[in-house]
Design goal:
coiled coil; DIXC1 protein; 2 helices; mainly alpha; 0% strand
Amino acid sequence: LQKELLKYKQEARNLQGIKRSLPSPQDALQQRLIQQDASVLQLKQELLRASMDKEELHNQNVDLQRKVEERNRLLAEYKKELCQKDRHLQQHQAKLDEMLRQLSEASYQQVDLERELEHREALLAQCMKREAEE
């Protein structure tokens, strides 16, 4: 019996040693909770980074929209100025065309007057010649 008792005591000590080397269910749960907490913390950090990136992108988008609106406003102003300058150019072109027409008309009148002057000078010369002959 004593041998058996010693054998069982030895077996109990071995089992105690094995039990100590194995983690307890509470320790395993605590380790699992620690891992989950670390994962949750990492996910929270990633979510925070993603939120910050989203906010930065939103701010950049707002800034770009403001710049586009400003450029569109400037473009509208430039188009308005261009239309005004086109109107002025058309008005000046019309005036120029009218002046060219008047100049052409005056040129034709000058040619007619020069011909008439030459004709009258020829008549005068004939008259002077007749008078001189008479």
